[in-house]
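Re: export button greyed out
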Amino acid sequence: MQIVARLATDGTILDITGDIDLAHSPAMRKALLEEIREKKTHKVFLNLEKVRYIDSSGIASLVEGLKASRDMGSRLILFGLSKTVREVMELSRLQKIFEIHDSEAQALGS
Amino acid sequence: MRGGRPIKSTNAGRGKGQPKSQMLLKLELKSNPEALCLVRAAIERAAEVLQFPDTDTRAIVRSVDEALANVMRHAYRGRAGLPIEISCHKLDSATTKEHHAGMEVILQDQGLALDPAKLKGRALDDIRPGGLGLHFINQSMDEVEFSRKKGKNQLRMVKYLVPAPQQAGSQGE
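Workaround output, generated via the alternate export path:
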């Protein structure tokens, strides 16, 4: 899994590539919490277009990121969810808890 | 989506009442999270060979992955290099109670005995990290059965291959 950070006009986009599973979710959790808590980024956009798989540990990291962003008064915005990632979100019944957009353009305009 | 049954805990392994099966795949691996992607790829191919639709293939892959992650995290408490066996069987439609062919996956580990009372997963209304793996397995598979035998944990999961309904007005060839 690879994580690349890009600056957007009012926040940071984290481009994630690969599988977010037990082996790699700790790295995503660290990057996400660093962006939210330490860098105090107002809007963190998570680009999941190139994520082929996410497991429950990945979802747990996203929930932790969401809670941290609420604590900090910032926003965590997801976009580009694949069918596989959407299914897992639906199974977790978390699709309405997260701010989710189809594309980067929609996410940036939100 | 089918499934959604809670995990049944038994002290028995495969018994006389179990449907006939044919071994498709056997994997022996160590409790290293880096191995998960390899297992997912192998299970995905096995489900495709049995002609499961994409949604069911993803459900099987997800369940095996979550079950393996649970073994690594809970039964082996995160210790690497400990043995896990996965066997994958094709179930014969004539012998299953559902009268559908299917796929059975059995995971075995030599880790700590799990408390059946903790095999329920958490309520989804409680929004917090963790506790979702068992819920995913229960929602994704048709049968889920946990047993402890001769110092080994065994998790048996079954997904049935339900024939697609015939489209109205379709012409046979």
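The longest strand of chain B covers residues 21-30. The button fix ships in the next patch.
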